[in-house]
Every structure is written in structure tokens, then in C-alpha cells.
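#struct-help
A.M.: can someone run this one for me? Single chain, 280 residues.
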Amino acid sequence: MYAKTFEFNGLLASNLNLYIMNFDGNTDGAIDTGGEVTFNTSKPGSSDMWYMHSSTVENPLTFTFQIGKYDCDNDIEETISREEYAFIMSWLQRRDGYKWLRFIQDGYTDTYFNCQLNVKPIEWGGKKVGLEVTGLCNAPYGFSPEQTYTATLLPSVAFSLYNDSDKEGELLFDKVVIKPTANCDIEIINDLDSQYCPDKDYSTIIKNCSSAETITIENRQIYSTVDSHDLGNDFNFLYPRLIYMYDYNNLIPYRRNTYTVKSGSFEITLTYRTVRMVSA
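D.P.: on it. C-alpha cells below:
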């Protein structure tokens, strides 16, 4: 991956005259893309064959790059002052969790990495000439820009979302906000659920909803603005999800998810990012 600058937590590095540089002569541009798959296998004592039971991705995405200060107008490399260094450290090396990073480079501008950064100064002649940045992501892949869908729904009304993910499987929405427009029980089904889990009757059900409340599902937790709503009993904990399946026998991808309201009247807002696989 090659890039000139980057954006972290909404701030573009080039606005601070910071650009991706190289101070140690390493120009291969390689990154560890994570995604190594571990296969769990076993071999019966009477057999020469190993059998796979499951597979998991063990390592998150990690990468290292170097940055320095550069005056584009005058074509001058600059050192980093003490005040600038303090601001950069507070911006990049944070203690408040993962933040979104993207590299400004063709093919990657719309790929975001949810990561934490560690920063080390690069010094020469007693002055800070640059910084080495190491990123540790929360996943072995990147993500799309945030996508949002909002609709007001009634029983038997359907809507569709297209899953443009690079990774097969299910994707839970980052955030679901439901505002009932009447006192009702809510049930939503996805037409791909029956194919994805054919042995399970999967639908999202929330009972005893009130028109006076807002229900939010986020990070596998659900809560309501009405404290008396007992969601522990009224929610079936089958979260709405976005599915991507591939029929390898017929070479057919299934990406369009059609959701149908079986019961309830409500406004819904779905917020999500799809998976972007990256390579060095």
C-alpha cells in the first residue's frame, strides 16, 4: 500500500503539513494484512486422514508507517516543534478506544480501519524530524464508509439493502434505532435468513413497544428510553443482520437482503459498514 497522507479520527494529516515519508530506507511498502486462518483439526487413531472441525482468524490487521512535516509550497522538510509534537501525540496516541483511520491513496480512500495507534519520535541532531506510527486494528480487515438507511414502515411493507461486503457471512448492524409510531409488537424478517440458517426460524421480535419510546440496538446491547420496558423478556435477542452468501454450485452471489415487516408500525434507522479485504 502506498499513500501520501492519511486521515485519523476525522482530521486530515496534510492539514498539519504531515505526510507519509520514509526515514530508514525501507521502501517495500509492506504491511501485515492479518487474516491468517487457523484450522482446528483432529485425526482418529486408526486413520491417516486429518479432519477439519472449524477455522478461525487469529490475528488482527497491523501496520507501521512513518510521517514527517513538509512544506509543499516551498518544498521544504521541517522539524516538529515541542508544541506540535504534544498535539500530534494527543491526536494519534489516544486512550479512548479505537478510532477510524483511512489512507488517502487511489483504491483505499474509501477503506477505513478501526484502530489504535502508537507513536515513536524519529530524531536527528537532537530534533524531531518525524514519527513512526504503528497501528493495531480491531479486525483482520478494513471497512467501508459508514452507510445509513432510514424508513418508516408498516405491516407487510418491505425494503432492501445490498451487502457489498468482501466477506461472506452475516454482518450485524453497528446501530439500529427504532421509533414505534403506535403501541405494537414488532417483528422483522430477512428473506436470506431462511437460506443462511435453514434449520432455524430467524426473525427479530420486540414485544410491547410504545409510541412514546425509542429503542436502540448497539454493540449487541438493547435499551429503551422508557425504563419500564422489560426488553430482557420482550426482545428475542435475534438481531437484524445483513447477509452475503455465495452459491458455488451455480456461481450465484446473494447480496440483496429484503426485509419484511410482519407486525408493527415504526421508523427504523440502520447504520453499518461492510467489510473491505486489503492486501499488501
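A.M.: thanks! The chain has two domains: 5-141, 144-276.
D.P.: also worth noting: The chain has three helices and 24 strands.
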